[in-house]
Write a structure and sequence with these properties.
- The complex is a heterodimer of chains A (92) and B (118).
- Chain A has two domains: 38 residues, HU Protein, Chain A, CATH 4.10.520; 52 residues, Irregular (HU Protein, Chain A).
- In chain A, 42% of the residues lie in helices and 29% in strands.
- The two termini of chain A are 16 Å apart.
- With 118 residues, chain B is α+β, with helices and mostly antiparallel strands.
- Chain B folds into two domains: 41 residues; 52 residues, IHF-like DNA-binding proteins (HU Protein, Chain A), CATH 4.10.520.10.
- Chain B contains three helices and five strands; from the N terminus they run H-H-E-E-E-E-E-H.
- In chain B, helix 1 crosses helix 2.
- The chains are: A alpha+beta (92), B alpha+beta (118).
- At the A-B interface, helix 1, helix 2, strand 1, strand 2 and strand 5 of A face helix 1, helix 2, strand 1, strand 2 and strand 5 of B.
């Protein structure tokens, strides 16, 4: 599934034009992205939470060369699926 | 930000007569994504990230109360991988336009261009 399928779903169910539907899908994800960018989490009941986590710098290793390298401190995005979603998908 | 906050935010960008559609819009998007995963389909949202299912094999677990061994059935678990653009934005790295030659020509913030502005 891609963004185009979501655009179609909005077009069919909500009755915006194709062009408006495309803008709306873009808008929804842009709002989510901006919120996450600010470090705020997104909680979608029945789906899951998108959470920002601060990772400390750590020593990693290049598995090919065995060379030790420092992995710099960074901010990462993780997704924690809700129990409802996990249950819905466990037997797929 | 919860789903209702997101719905309210979306409503700010659509014209007055259609504000109530914001809830249907947001629900439709997440419902469709759940449906896709439930069909075993993978989801790929350009600029955001992708979702796919991973197989977890059955294993022997323990009942934390009694300590008895129990078999935990195999299952599928959803996984999200943030796209490059989002990963960089979250990490505070400015997007490098030269590294995304095929980036869609979408504006950073979609304007409320749905006819009237209110």
């Amino acid at each position: 599934m891609t963004k185009a399928d979501l655009v179609n779903a909005i077009y069919e169910r909500v009755g915006f034009s194709k062009k408006e539907s495309a803008r709306i899908v873009e808008l929804v994800f842009e709002i989510i992205k901006e919120t996450l960018e600010e470090g705020e989490k997104i909680k979608i009941s029945g789906f899951g939470n998108f959470v920002i986590r601060d990772k400390r710098a750590r020593i990693g290793r290049n598995p090919q060369t065995n060379e030790e390298i420092t992995i710099s401190a960074r901010r990462v995005l993780t997704f924690k699926p809700s129990q409802v979603l996990r249950n819905a998908l466990k037997d797929v | 930000m919860t789903k209702s906050d997101l719905i309210a935010k979306v409503a700010e960008h659509i014209p007055g007569s259609r504000k109530r559609d914001a809830e249907v819009i947001v629900n439709t998007i997440f419902d469709r994504m759940v449906e896709a995963l439930a069909q075993g389909d993978r989801i790929e949202i350009r600029g955001f990230g992708s979702f796919h299912l991973r197989q977890r094999d059955s294993r022997i677990g323990r009942d934390p109360k009694t300590g008895a061994k129990v078999e935990v059935a195999s299952k599928k678990v959803p996984f999200f991988k943030a796209g490059k653009e989002l990963r960089q934005r979250v990490d505070g790295i400015e997007e490098d336009p030269s590294s995304t030659p095929s980036a869609p020509s979408t504006p950073e913030t979609p304007s409320g261009d749905f006819g009237s502005s209110e």
